[in-house]
């Protein structure tokens, strides 16, 4: 059963068609690597999944539930969007940690705010907050940063900051965790620790969509590879199919350019 | 020939400066935020009107605005302004709110889109994002320019004398009219001491927010 | 839309006040524009209904000032209070910015200007003036140790006066010399440099600081500022040159009926001797203008230029 289904998703910016009808689906526990040249639309696609961009038309379903339908997109209230986007987590290229909060608070803030809406928050306040804190500590431990939890973001290296960002996204237990070029803003020597964390998540069968330029990593870690070209899915299949036996000439050219470097 | 003790007179004059300073701050700080929201509104006419308003207020001398507030009601409608101090407060609040609003706007716009988006993907509401994520970063950014503006306000309060507010400079000028010069120059001490206290306060606030970088 | 109207209105106000302000500062300009709607209704009715008359003034001795016991006194102060008693109304003194006196009047923030104000042709145009009650002359104020040098020749020296004052008008010829004049200020200072000051007090400060050599100010005001107990104890007032006499008057909104009521009260105070007593008290007896109908319209005969100048000197002692 597919956890994520995207049907004929289109996105225009004014007259510019960035996504020209994207179709793909993803099974639970699979990780999908999205590759393609800059401007091919992969970041836009990711942002559409996370409701940071509103698709022009098409449908997105998570666990067979429609979370977006271009046909009646206008009926989606802000509250509904808020609820639906929680199916997804997003790790940004530039981390976007909250600078005024500690590493731990970065992870727990959103969950604490949500807990305040719970009817039993007032009566069980201390217990609820303690639980969230424990969760935060655990999730930080899972990315190897438990001893940094009282630090502020600017005191950490780029790689550590990105690991905090991953932990922050994991806190809300999204059905699908998305990464937008998670290592592009990092110095080369810091990419390893972040990729290691993502690899660990793949091993634990976390459902992920990863936009990346790291071809070697995409080949090693992902279960599916989606090659996006000019706003369309040019190639979709297992890493072996896409990397070793691409059906399309443009895929071959793209990969050649990459592996030449 | 001299009336009250100059020191007493200057001190009571300066209390008026302080009162005008405090009331102006108290009202202009929140009003500035409202103006900021209007100037950043997606409703175009409101945004446009606010921009014109800011242009007019920043584009005309505060002295003239004091005159307008005090005299316009009487000149245009025959109903004179009842209190000079109220007139001064209105003019100062409007003027400073306009300046504050631009500082706020600069601060808000300097926060990267990524901060808003990070809040969104974590399921926060717009107001949660503003108050829990953006606000403190804005505050940190605007403390230095606001300190400047507030220190300027301290000294600008002396301008209220043009509409007959008996603030410290006006008090001092009473003495120059009676042949005593030194009170006028001693007023500097009052301002220096007060601005000194303010500077320490702002320094402390900046230090308080040193723990994070934006 | 409401906001837009408010904005347009506000802009209009800015222009209005700009016009009003400019003319009150200018030495020769007219400030008639602001006065169009003045005194459309009866000022007297307003004042008597409120039971209060608001007088705009600036503090200066001997007209309106605080004495050593911090009591508000002065010739104008006490005369106005006596008028208030006669009329059965309270007198409310408001300290104003002298530059804005016309706009204060026209915006009804004050009911009259009563503060040793000289009668000028311009003010006769823009205000309704009372009968004159005191003479004033223009005095030269300078450092005592340079008096001989300066009085022998002012050529090449720097003279200062309050902007918009009678002194400036005389120096620049915007106030024409009348037949009370023995020495034309414009001719006397023809070879001097002129600097405008913010106020008469600032004019004296210019002299004290040496940025000007001599100040030309109202004699009555000068005697209030220069004296042994002041920072100007090293300065002297010289009234040897009679640059002409001015008359102190009370200014009302153009066409105001309040003037008649105040003048009637002053007539009574002249008649019962109160005015003379006050003049005596403040050492102004020799400058007092007798209360006869002619004094208001004709050049004074009771006090010639000579005697008034002597009187001004006497008042200093």
Automatic annotation (TrEMBL), chain B:
> Could you list the residue ranges that cross the membrane?
20-40, 52-72, 84-101, 180-205
ABC transmembrane type-1 domain span: 10-202
Q: InterPro entries, from UniProt?
A: AA_ABC_transptr_permease_3TM (IPR010065), ArtM/GltK/GlnP/TcyL/YhdX-like (IPR043429), MetI-like (IPR000515), MetI-like_sf (IPR035906)
Q: Which GO terms describe its molecular function?
A: transmembrane transporter activity
Q: Which UniProt keywords are given for this protein, alphabetically ordered?
A: Amino-acid transport, Cell membrane, Membrane, Transmembrane, Transmembrane helix, Transport
In which compartments does the protein localize?
Answer: Cell membrane
Q: Does the keyword Cell membrane apply?
A: yes
Gene3D superfamilies given in the database record: MetI-like
This protein's GO CC annotations: ATP-binding cassette (ABC) transporter complex
How does the entry describe its membrane topology? Answer: Multi-pass membrane protein
| Name under which the protein is recorded | Amino acid ABC transporter permease
**What's the source species for this entry?**
Candidatus Anaerobutyricum stercoris
